[in-house]
Amino acid sequence: MSTLKKTLILIIAALLITGCTTNHKDVEKQALTGYVTEKDFQKKGLLVIENDETKTSDENFYAAEWYFPKEEAVFLDSKGNNISYDEIEVGHTVSTWSTTPSAQSYPSGAELSKLVINEESKNPINQMDEKSAIQHAINYLKSKHDDGIIIKSASGQKDYWQIKATDYDHKKETNLQIHAQTGEVKEF
């Protein structure tokens, strides 16, 4: 074999090997914005589900994703300050970013690269915030139902929070009133 052919083969082989081993940087993309509805301390996972204000698809589908933070994941409060994973609570409205595609399940799963807690709204008259109202609603619904919980909306009224919820299959719509001073939950 001629020297030119050997050199050409070596160059092509080197290019192929280099192309196959190049380290590609992960591409971060914004994922879901929604309520944190569960926090798994053992697996270090957060279940985030879209709500009526944040959903991106048709009227009857709420995207849901279990996020598992990467070691280098960034957590920020609504003012852009770094916070720890432990400061994220069920009921927070969050925006998420991921570098991995979602698993094909419901709820799906992905690695979490960044999470930002969105600004919280307060009840106009009393001091119960939206996160606390959602926590009361989720605890109440978990005691009554075994299905997954989707919080569709939360709105502060004169002296209570009105929460609309459903299950994963959209078979059971539930409307709740959470008293903003006592935390008492009533279905209506």
TrEMBL record:
Task: Give the top-rank taxon of the lineage listed in the UniProt record for this protein.
Answer: Bacteria
Instruction: Determine if Signal is one of this entry's keywords.
Output: yes
The signal sequence is 1-25
- Whether Signal counts among this entry's keywords is yes
Listed A to Z, the keywords are: Signal
Name of this chain's protein: DUF3221 domain-containing protein
The beginning of the lineage is: Bacteria, Bacillati, Bacillota, Bacilli, Bacillales
